[in-house]
TrEMBL record:
Entry keyword annotation includes Oxidoreductase: yes
Database matches in NCBIfam families: PRK07231.1
Gene3D superfamilies: NAD(P)-binding Rossmann-like Domain (3.40.50.720)
Pfam families assigned to the protein according to its UniProt record, in alphabetical order: adh_short_C2
Gene Ontology BP terms: bile acid metabolic process
Main EC class the enzyme belongs to: oxidoreductase
The family this protein is said to belong to: Belongs to the short-chain dehydrogenases/reductases (SDR) family.
Keyword RNA-binding: no
Lineage of the species this protein comes from: Bacteria, Bacillati, Bacillota, Bacilli, Bacillales
One term of GO molecular function: glucose 1-dehydrogenase [NAD(P)+] activity
Database matches in InterPro entries: NAD(P)-bd_dom_sf, Sc_DH/Rdtase_CS, SDR, SDR_fam
Enzyme Commission (EC) number: 1.1.1.47
Name of the protein in question: Glucose 1-dehydrogenase
Amino acid sequence: MQPNFSIQDKIAIVTGASKGIGYGLAQALAAAGAKVAVMARSKASLDRLVEEISRAGGQAKAYELDVRNVEQIRSVFGQVAEDFGRLDIVVNNAGLGEGMLAEDITEDYWDEMMDVNLKGVFFCCQAAGRLMLEQGYGKIINVSSQVSVVGITEGAAYCASKGGINQLTKVLALEWSSRGVNINAVGPTFIHTPGTAERLDSPEFRDGVLARIPAGRIGTIGDVAGAVIYLASPASDLVTGTLLLVDGGWTAQ
């Protein structure tokens, strides 16, 4: 039997879609045929994305969502299911990534990192899971990081939050996979986006990163999108509870 990589007409949510990886993932899912509900804290920040997807022949609708607000998560996810009739795919991409030395971390910084990167992901998973379990099918993809399995300087809170995503993914897979809901994570290396360009375009920083990547190049949003579309498709129906690293071999060392 040939694997089925199609997500044509599937209903997908992408959180944190107003910029960077989330912006590109929404475009990639739409280009692959999914109908995409794009979410960010400001609905207005999504207007350009929706317009670009529509102009390319895809279908997208914008929703305001702050993943720190649990009641809003439940309401917005329910609204998507009502608007589109079901929910097939959720990509939990919203996250914070600003680094800080461990001795400088404040309680507010720690709490915000965990509220967005871990608590927000869990309650998005829960809201999606409740809908998907009822329909007996669904794919949840959590955006983790290569530093969920290796450390990085100034990453105490960030690495801890992403490591938590990996464990959360495993537990939810144990609880939900027998009822048709697959849940996995992707772990990108450094990805070139407008937000990372300032650091990655610095020769010194870039050379330091490339020295750790056996594949010899910085990641692209397209690299991450390939992994996400695979995990969102029927081709990955027996894949659940895993972390798919998109790191060019960084963590193989």
